[in-house]
Amino acid sequence: MSVKVRCPYVPANDALYIAYHDKEWCMPQHDDAKIYELFLLELFQAGLSWRTLLHKRENFRRAYAGFDAAKVAAFTAEDEVRLQQDAGIIRHAGKIHASIVNARVYLAIQQEWGSFAAYIWHFTAGKTIYEPLAVTRNALSDAVTRDLKKRGTKFAGTTSIYSFLQAIGIIYSHAPECFCYQRDGWGK
Q1: What are phi and psi of 55, to 5 degrees?
Q2: Helix runs in the chain, H state only
Q3: What does the pLDDT read at residue 1?
């Protein structure tokens, strides 16, 4: 039986992380609902491990109305208090407030561009770019961050945005020795 070689950071004993790595990470995503889910989660990750967020993902789904951006944008101060008391998610008050502000910015971008996917993919003219794992920011994440900040986003620094761009497949970062690199055609 052959063992799949994965990116070196993937914990061998974490089925949830392995499934995310193998089936989601760096896969080009154009569905606005899925992009919003990853946008919300990635911006909560700042200062934390992705493993932490993955293991709280279903709690976030419940707490954040199934990752429905319109519902999150309508959250009130009472919802902020509710979220701060929810032990199943990250209870950072600043991130919680930012998540509501960011949902409103997200919807405004959808309105302006027709979809958030059209907006976010325009930065690379619809193309995925390869970046090695050692990189945590680049000119692209800097540019996206500047634009999002001008639009009013919070907790959206260039490192978080870089990670988000990887999550939705705009930046592809599977290591050359990872089976995904070959599977996805980067090793040809």
Answers
A1: -80, -10
A2: 15-23, 32-45, 50-63, 69-73, 77-84, 93-113, 116-122, 139-151, 158-167, 179-183
A3: 56
* pLDDT tens-digit map of 77-106: 999 999 999 999 999 999 999 999 999 999
- For the whole model, what pTM was predicted? 0.95
Cβ–Cβ under 8 Å, residues 137 and 159: yes
Token pair belonging to 75:
């959250």
The number of C-alpha atoms within 13 Å of 173 and in the hemisphere containing its C-beta is 22
Which of 37, 82, 39, 43 minimizes the C-alpha distance to 63?
82
Q: What count of Cα atoms within 13 Å lies in the side-chain half-sphere of residue 159?
A: 10
Active site residues: 20, 42, 50
Q: With contact defined as beta carbons under 8 Å apart, do 116 and 106 qualify?
A: yes
Q: Can you tell me the distance from the alpha carbon of 76 to that of 68, in angstroms, rounded to the nearest whole number?
A: 15
